Amino acid sequence: MDTPTEVLHRVFGYDSFRAGQQEIIEHVVAGGDALVLMPTGGGKSLCYQIPALVRPGVGVVVSPLIALMQDQVDALTALGVRAGFLNSTQDFAERQQVESAFLAGELDLLYLAPERLRVEATVRLLAKGEISVFAIDEAHCVSQWGHDFRPDYLALSELRELWPEVPRIALTATATPATHAEISSRLGLDGARHFVASFDRPNIQYRIAPKSEPKRQLLEFLRTEHQGDAGIVYCMSRASVEKIAAFLVDNGVDAVPYHAGLDSRTRAAHQAQFLREEGLVVVATIAFGMGIDKPDVRFVAHLDLPKSVEGYYQETGRAGRDGLPATAWMAYGLQDVVQQRKLLTEGDEAHRRRQALHLDAMLALCETVGCRRVMLLDYFGQQGSEPCGNCDTCQAPPESWDGTVPAQKVLSAVLRLKRERRQKFGVGQIVDILLGKQTAKVLQHGHESLTVFGVGTELGNAEWHGVVRQLLAQGLLAVEADYGALVLTDASGDVLRGQRQVPLRRDAPRPLRAKTAAAAKSRPAAELPQEAAPVFERLRAWRAATAKEQGVPAYVIFHDSTLREIATLAPSTLEELATVNGVGENKLAKYGEQVLEALTA
Length: 601
Ligand code: ADP
Ligand code: ZN
Prior knowledge:
There is one protein chain. This protein is an alpha/beta fold. The chain folds into four domains: 4-196, 3-Layer(aba) Sandwich (Rossmann fold); 204-332 and 368-398, P-loop containing nucleotide triphosphate hydrolases (Rossmann fold); 403-506, Arc Repressor Mutant, subunit A (Orthogonal Bundle), CATH 1.10.10; 524-600, HRDC domain (DNA polymerase, domain 1, Orthogonal Bundle). It is built from 28 helices and 17 strands. A seven-stranded parallel β-sheet has the order 3-4-2-5-6-1-7, with helices on both faces. The chain has a six-stranded parallel β-sheet with strand order 8-13-12-9-11-10, sandwiched between helices. A two-stranded antiparallel ribbon has the order 14-17. Helix 13 (309-316) links the parallel strand 12 (299-302) and strand 13. Helix 2 (21-29) packs parallel to helix 3 and helix 14 (334-343) packs parallel to helix 21. The longest helix is centred in the middle third of the chain and has 19 residues, at 349-367. The protein is globular. The protein binds adenosine-5'-diphosphate and zinc ion. Residues 371-373, 387-388, 391, 393-394 line the site of zinc ion.
């Protein structure tokens, strides 16, 4: 029997385990149950794939992501692992083939859609074979109210009664302790050991830029830092997804839209295109991305504010799974705060309060003058980390200034307007009044006679918008549901009476651009020694041709990181090639000669 480390080297071709993997794998190999919490891209799959290969029998993987099962099986097949799946997309003959392979002991891993296990025939089938481990992927599905897969996941608690001897490992990237506890009780995993991996994704650079002209900013970000890279752009609404995708295409970017309003064929086609092609940008609502394990997503951009830090981290976590530099970039501005605060007026009281807490945490991340990563890790329970040096606030620390007086001016303008008239006004009117602008709307309402008229000429229009945004973010101002009018909050009075200071963040005058060095670093071909760059391109061309021939995504052949290492090392023998991270036994046998040939071409 191979040890986990031997399997890691031989099958996967990796040098070493990532943080947490070894402990988890050894625990499961020894027959223990486990509940694993690891960030997106942290390397969860190995945690059940290796036990499945080390223990006798077939590893059964329950996953809701049936659209991705084929790719998962293809990737395992390329490694020489015998894998199959059973789900509703198959016809009878296909299913039978997998079932007989299972019964003949010819599978190492079997992927199942969760509803399969509620079918008596599947349970009978499984009972006839030997099972090495049950892996329950995306385990948070069991705890989320209204989740499509919840009923199927709840039924998984029976696994313990049916197969008391078989270890079970539940995996998720969703971090809250409540979710954790619920997974554990719903799946009957009371005796399971809990593993919580570090949430840090050091290769991802987090940046949040002040939003001015989002479309232009996005385009500039793509052109200067991620030309030709694969990435995801998240927008809140279907309409903006369509608009941004069309805008990118008009500007020469290879982009496709993805949202729940598109028919399922188009959605599946765009997803497949993203997985298979290189350098495609998907503009999407949050409907896109769950379970997609494309390793070479080089950036995730947000044009609208996510509703929670959990969501933000899950979405940005889809970048840079291969460990190479990647960017999480967001444009964030006043309208985001207004819009999200307005949405908070929906639903019942408890729901609203929960949403408000989520939003507050997200806004605090946006407005921080400290390291973004420190704040993120802190949020996920990892206190006390050092500033990272690889986020926008570390690279260009924003100033913090005492905004108490400007805050008082804004708040008293809001107060005056409320006293003077029943009517409600939005941000634009407040700022015009403070700046002393005699606009038609100001004159029409006689606002030029207010005592606050023209008291704010020390700041410009954009700066005042920044002040209002931060007051909203800090809960010193609120937005009314109907018209988006600004109103005071319980906390506003303390500021007006001078009993509370208001520290503010000074926004960068221009959208921050990454330093050129950092920008260059994120190009896959960059950082390579000069003579290796053309070799890397040659290898990529070989990989593209091979992937096309086999009908699999390019990364199933080799990851970018592996090709880079090969290009740099320039091995001349198979033994040398075998030392490269990501070159396992099977791939060496299958592609070794071709790679050496491509190197000498
Ligand atoms: P998760 O499911 O946690 O989001 P994956 O299991 O998809 O993450 O792993 C993310 C990427 O990291 C994959 O491309 C995988 O091949 C790679 N990976 C995982 N473990 C290792 C390791 N020990 N060494 C090198 N690469 C690894
Ligand atoms: Zn930092």
